[in-house]
Amino acid sequence: MEIFSLYQKLVRDNFSLYYLGEFDDDLTEVLMRIQETSSDEGRGTKKRVNYLIAECFQNIIRHSNVKDEEEDELKISKFFMMRIIDRTHFIATANPIEKANQSTLIQSLESLQNLTSTELKQIYLNALGSNKLSAKGGGGLGLIEMARKTQNPPSYHFDDINEIYSNFFMQLKMKGEEGEEIQVEIEDTVEHYHEMLDQNIVLLRKGDFSQESILPLFTLFESNLQLKKEDLVFKKKSLYILIELLQNMNKHAVEINGSKEGVFIVCLKDSVYTMKTGNYIKKEDGIRLKSHLDSLVGLDKIQLAKRYKEQLMSDSMTDDQGAGIGIIEMVRQSDGEILYDFTDIDENLCFYSFSATL
Predict the structure, then answer these.
(1) Single pTM value for the model
(2) What average pLDDT does the structure give for the chain?
(3) Is-contact 18 81, C-beta < 8 A?
């Protein structure tokens, strides 16, 4: 399954989040909570990163000129990314802009290259006092302040969309309190963006799946992915599967270097959602789990309900049986195919991939 290959591409990331879809002001706070629970750095670093998240997010909301229905026609999407690699933070965005504004934007970005912190501060004060703020607010102040906060100029890239629009990618890098200097080229981020579009991925999170870190994901999932447009029954079904998948990762993922590491992916195509997870488990647990999953293949809804009741009525329920009930219920709730795979890592570990469609 492609879940393991996606995980391997991000193997050096302590944390990463990729998001395509609808953007509104409420989502900023959710992303800040996700960042705070995914980083063990000091308050000062978290505060600076939160500022960058808010500023990047507001740029997407203010300056995207294409309506949501036009994005579908153009086969593009607004994009947000956060990554932490050895305490170096990367934040990237993509949104369509009118080509008529591209040269002005490039001029603003280029003016920030190779400047000292003193020079950046002076440019910021000059811009603040010039009263040349645009109708949408900012007048380049946001770009200047982001360069000051990160002590690095933003990197950027433009993808041609058509004769009217370009897709504008911007990436920030901020070194944390410790750790060596890490570099991620913006071209790599652009490549990941196109891979997500090609594979219909709207959300990807890699990192620790302890209880505290997974809670903000529920809000992120519920507030977007077109769930606001779905009926109540579908919402309940999708949220049940989401909760069960994340809780299973939290309970049964092998802890490596103090982290219950894994990857969670949501795909959306033609109003069909597919949720995928991948994490390390002990090989002996994998053998038992595969046997249980194999036993559910081909069962209809009635047979699944009977199996669920039998396991629920068991006199003494072990942890494995409790997890088994959750899997049976996920299969019952799913409207599509359940896929799973176990990739051997070494003599003790395997990588467990699971996919449910609804």
Answers:
(1) 0.87
(2) 82
(3) yes
Long-range pairs of 125-129 with CB within 8 A, sequence gap ≥ 24: none
Structure tokens given for 314:
């068991």
Helix (H) or strand (E) holding 147: helix 141-150
pLDDT higher than threshold 50 for residue 45: yes
Q: Among 347, 357, 355, which Cα is nearest to 287's?
A: 347
Q: Which strands make up the sheet holding 155-160, listed edge to edge?
A: 155-160, 165-175, 88-98, 79-85, 15-20, 201-208, 261-269, 272-282, 349-357, 338-344
Instruction: Say yes or no to pLDDT of 56 above 70.
Output: yes
182-237 residue pLDDT tens: 889 999 999 999 999 999 998 999 988 876 667 777 777 766 555 555 666 777 77
Q: Please tell me the total number of residues recorded for the chain in this structure.
A: 358
Query: What are the structure tokens assigned to 207, written together?
Result: 């990192």
Asked if 14 and 261 count as a contact pair (C-beta separation under 8 A), the reply is: no
Residues 157 and 187: their CA atoms lie apart, in Å, by 8
β-strand partners of 343 = 351
Q: Could you report the per-residue pLDDT of 66-86, keeping only the tens digit for each?
A: 666 666 667 778 899 999 998
> Residue 154 has what DSSP assignment?
P
Written as one letter, the residue type at 68 is D
- pLDDT tens for 296-347 read 888 888 888 888 888 877 655 455 555 578 888 888 888 777 899 999 999 9
DSSP for 338-351, written as a single string:
EEEEEEE-SSSEEE
Please calculate the CA angle 214-50-144 and round it to the nearest 5 degrees.
150
Contacts (Cβ under 8 Å, ≥6 apart) of 101: none
- Name the token pair of 170: 């911007």
Distance CA 76, CA 238 (A): 25
Q: Which residues contact 65 (CB under 8 A, 6 or more apart)?
A: 96, 97, 98, 165
Q: Distance between CA atoms of 76 and 190, rounded to whole angstroms?
A: 12
